[in-house]
Amino acid sequence: MLKAAVVGVNHIGKIHCRYYQEHRDVQLVAVCDLNESLVKTVANECKVNAYTDLKTMLKDEEIDVISVATGGKENGSQHYEPAMLAIEAGIDVLVEKPLSNCIKEAREMVEYARLQNVRLGCNLNHRFVPAAHLAKEWIDKGDLGTLLFVNMKLTIGNPNESSPWIHLRALHPHSIDVMRYFAGDIRRVQAFMTKAPGRTVWSTASINLEFESGAVGHLTGSYDMDNNHPIENCEVAGNNGRLIIDNVYENLTFYPHKSSEMKVVRNSVLNGMSGFNETFKNRINSFISDIKRSVDPEYVAGSGLDALSAQEVIEAAIRSQNENGAVIEIPKLLGRKVM
Which intervals hold domain Gfo/Idh/MocA-like oxidoreductase N-terminal (predicted)? Predict the structure, then answer.
């Protein structure tokens, strides 16, 4: 039985608590938050110990895995310190996205986890769905042939005006990660962004990408759309066919070349995913599985390195926007390819 703790217990942290408690091989033992009233309430609901100081929790509790679900600026400025403390203690850690809103901190987290031989994962939950896994199988089997392009759209409604780059850094670790999951590392990007009427942040973005394989791609992202409608669409095409995933997990369609037939896999009403929050469940379950199977930290699915790779692309896109649409090369990262 793995013993788990959650740091940061607002909305997202509570979701982590829920799915740890539902896992048959996990015991949630503690929660930690600077807000004493909040953490005591959540601890009482979960029947676990409450802490307002992470160092004390690490000293007093036996913990195998920690979720860092703190927030901060651009949803990531408060991830670094708790994650580094967990890594220092030799505890496997799952961090919410972005790994950090500061690229220097994200790089340090990944390197420290490597040196400590600790599993560092990131909640890149959009890829942890049956549709994405099946699409990846088709791609790896060669059903699509040589990949030629990947088109991604992730658009939601979010009025947050706290930072010029909140839309890029807080939302698009997901979309970049999905694109990398299917097509591998990205070589260079070019970005153009705009602000919706009345907005002060770069709330809509158009980003061109070139992959190391030679395939090309495009990402459309926005904080200016309506959450009542589908938020995500991903199209992957090769010289033998193409596939489309509709709305994260709802439908997967394969269009083979030289055939009038298509293959459609729908999310089952009775046995499929019941809602978006189950992407969190799938992601947490995958991390627990990696720990239980003693997967080498280098091969964790949705690893810290994957999150850092996505963040490097986002920072390059921001630089491109600042440089009037210049084409920006992505820094080369040491380590394995996308898992």
Answer: 3-121
CATH for 49: 3.40.50.720
CA distance 224 to 196: 7
Tell me phi and psi for residue 308, to 5 degrees.
-65, -40
| Residues 168 and 317 placed together within one structural domain of the fold | yes
Q: Say which DSSP state 120 is in.
A: E
Quick one: three-class SS letters along 66-101?
Answer: EEECCCCHHHCCCCHHHHHHHHHCCCEEEECCCCCC
Domain end residue (candidates: 108, 125, 142): 125
Listing DSSP states for 265-286 in one string gives EE--TTTS--STTHHHHHHHHH
Is residue 34 in a domain?
yes
Strands of the chain (E only): list them. 2-7, 26-32, 49-51, 65-68, 92-95, 120-122, 147-155, 186-194, 204-211, 216-222, 232-238, 241-246, 251-256, 263-266, 328-329
* Alpha-carbon 318 to chain mean position: 19
- The CA distance from 22 to 7, in Å, is 18
Nearest to 228 by CA among 132, 155, 125: 155
Whether omega before 98 lies within 30 degrees of 0, making that bond cis, reads yes
Containing structural domain, residue 153: 129-269+304-329
- Residue range 177-227, pLDDT digits in tens: 999 999 999 999 999 999 999 999 999 999 999 999 999 999 999 999 999
Q: Encoding tokens for residue 104?
A: 């220097």
- On whether both 170 and 261 belong to a single domain, the answer is yes
State the burial class of residue 200 (Cβ atoms within 10 Å of its Cβ: 0-12, 13-18, 19+): exposed
Give residue-wise pLDDT tens across range 316-331: 999 999 999 999 999 9
Q: 173: phi > 0 → left, psi -120 to 50 → alpha, else beta; which?
A: alpha
* Bridge partner residues of 206 (DSSP): 192, 220
